[in-house]
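Researcher: Sequence recovery benchmark, item below. Answer with residues only.
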């Protein structure tokens, strides 16, 4: 009986050691899953707190046809909780990614695109061929500044009437 008890004891200790090692691996993996889940939750909150909207009269958007390329002046307002990155947004006019002409004007001019602040942007593209009272679909995709390691993204699309 002494021999049977010793081998059983060895098997028991070996099983406990293997179980302990497996639990360490499982706990470490669970920690990584929890950390990843926390980051995803922060990203969802950032997206929910990031919001950009059109500002001004969408029925009377300035179209400048005097230059080599037509220019459209647009206004966008930060309607979210987070500060938007005024250097990190893209504007599409009728599906064409438009380049920004000149400088971006911020109202009020304090340097940051905070909640309720408006930016004025003039965009242009060689393919623009609009006339007075034409309709165009404008889309903006904006990002917030990085807060707590994440940034939010929002987009807004609307139809505007161009006025010369």
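Model:
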């Amino acid at each position: 009986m002494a021999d049977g008890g010793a081998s059983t004891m060895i098997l028991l200790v070996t099983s406990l050691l293997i179980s302990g090692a497996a639990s360490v691996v499982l706990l470490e993996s669970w920690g990584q899953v929890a950390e990843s889940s926390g980051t995803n939750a922060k990203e969802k909150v950032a997206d929910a707190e990031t919001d950009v909207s059109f500002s001004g009269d969408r029925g009377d958007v300035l179209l400048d046809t005097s230059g080599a390329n037509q220019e459209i002046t647009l206004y966008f307002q930060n309607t979210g909780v987070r500060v938007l990155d005024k250097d990190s947004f893209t504007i599409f006019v009728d599906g064409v990614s438009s380049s920004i002409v000149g400088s971006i004007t911020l109202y009020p001019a304090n340097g940051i695109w905070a909640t309720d602040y408006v930016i004025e942007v003039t965009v242009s593209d060689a393919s623009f061929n609009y006339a007075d009272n034409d309709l165009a679909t404008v889309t903006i995709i904006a990002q917030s500044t990085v807060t707590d390691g994440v940034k939010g993204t929002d987009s807004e699309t609307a139809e505007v009437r161009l006025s010369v």
